[in-house]
Design a protein that fits this description.
By secondary structure, this protein is α+β, with helices and mostly antiparallel strands. Among the domains are: about 120-160 and about 170-265, no CATH class; about 280-380, no CATH class. It is built from eleven helices and 14 strands. The strands form three sheets. Strands 1, 2, 3, 4, 5, 6, 11, 12, 13 and 14 form a ten-stranded mixed sheet that branches. It has a two-stranded antiparallel ribbon with strand order 7-10. It has a two-stranded antiparallel sheet with strand order 8-9. Strand 11 and strand 12 (about 205-220) form a beta hairpin. The chain is globular, with a radius of gyration of 24 Å. The mean pLDDT is about 90. This is Transposase IS701-like DDE domain-containing protein.
Length: about 375
């Protein structure tokens, strides 16, 4: 895979599983139907894709995607429409989690190196999915809902013995036999012995990611067996708490766990670039193959931009004197919008001169640097 052969990306990469919905006017586009649309925040007529993003340092890109086909698309009465829209005859219903797992396996088989897999709570709440990743020896950091049940001590699970003198059927189903009750993840966050620490994760465009994190070894239950995992908790500056489960080794430092927990952000950046800059959400075609072709072109465009960012950083080293000039500690990297500006100077019908394109990019980078300086000063002044 070309990513694996790119200098600087041999290690440190993370795969991020996510989904993205696009509103549709009717049910005649492949996979469309009334389903949850995160962009709208409600159930509406939509077409949903599941996507696998790759992030490494300051670069991110999609690497795979699948069109989700709701179950009703496989009803006998939909056979004619499936054929008309070119949906492969061998295609069967697969959940979004199954599609995600297929993409992860495909990416791994293609030789893309990655250190961990991240996903939101739709995927992370599935103990089956976490078990599959663990069995494949993939490290995961999977968001889970606040009410996820965990145990602080290893629960004893088994079939209870029949009580002497009690009538009725003999117990046959496993349950937790130990007296300790499960806690919600949000309850663990409020425990007195849950130790919170402020961790500086990374520099950001708006300053720095510096939130409070806590991590505890907890137990969950999968297929009637206790499973030990990390419960990683993040408390943002506004007070919002989020929760993740991870199978990282027991001796993993909190700083590493916090870093992994914050990687899912880059899937949002990849989705935003694909839709806002590359026209992913402008697809009007209805057929399945058109969706797949549009996906392939979008992934190629995202990877081209990623390569351009890497090559720009290699060829145009940042002048350290600019840090002192702007009174900042980090200079912004080339953005997708910057790459589009550069392309306007070299496309077959140039809209800008090379000098004009460079000037626009430089101006944009300077404005972003000044914006960062302003935000950092405001943060240091406090309320």
């Amino acid at each position: 895979m070309e990513i694996a052969a790119t200098p600087g990306l041999e290690q440190g990469g993370v795969l991020i599983l996510d989904e993205s919905a696009d509103a549709k006017a009717g049910e005649k586009s492949a996979g469309s139907g009334r389903q949850y649309n995160g962009r709208l925040g409600r159930v509406d007529m939509s077409q949903v894709g599941t996507f696998l993003a790759y992030a490494n340092g300051s670069v991110w890109t999609w690497v795979d995607g699948e069109l989700y086909l709701p179950k009703h698309w496989f009803a006998p009465e939909m056979a004619g429409l499936r054929e008309k829209l070119g949906i492969p005859a061998e295609r069967e219903f697969e959940t979004k989690i199954e599609l995600g797992w297929k993409m992860i396996q495909r990416t791994h088989a293609n030789g893309l190196p990655f250190e961990a897999i991240c996903c939101d709570d739709f995927y992370g709440q599935s103990s089956d999915f976490r078990a599959e990743m663990n069995a494949a020896e993939f490290i995961y950091m999977a968001d889970v809902p606040h009410n996820t049940q965990v145990y602080l001590k290893r629960p004893v699970v088994g079939v209870p013995e029949a009580q002497p003198g009690r009538h009725g059927r003999k117990p046959s189903r496993s349950r937790v036999l130990s007296p300790d009750k499960p806690l919600k993840a949000s309850d663990v966050a409020r425990q007195e012995d849950t130790n919170w620490h402020r961790v500086r994760v990374r520099d950001t465009e708006r300053g720095e990611l510096n939130d409070e994190f806590a991590a505890r070894r907890v137990w969950t239950i999968h297929e009637d067996e206790p499973v030990q995992e990390w419960l990683v908790m993040r408390r943002e500056s506004g007070g919002k708490c989020t929760y993740s489960m991870s199978n990282a080794s027991p001796n993993t430092p909190l700083k590493r766990l916090a870093w992994l927990k914050c990687q899912r952000y880059f899937a949002e950046r990849a989705n935003q670039d694909a839709k806002s800059e590359l026209g992913w959400d402008e697809l009007e075609a209805q057929k399945y193959l058109a969706w797949m072709h549009h996906l392939a072109l979008t992934i190629l465009a995202l990877w081209f931009i990623t390569q351009t960012k890497i090559e720009w950083a290699e060829q145009y080293a940042r002048d350290p004197r600019l840090l002192q000039q702007f009174e900042v500690d980090v200079l912004p990297a080339l953005s997708t919008a910057n790459v589009r500006t550069l392309l306007r100077a070299v496309m077959p019908l140039p809209q800008l001169t090379s000098a004009g394109a460079r000037a626009q990019v430089a101006k944009h980078l300077v404005n972003r640097t000044r914006s960062r300086k302003s935000r950092m000063k405001g943060r240091h002044r406090g309320p």
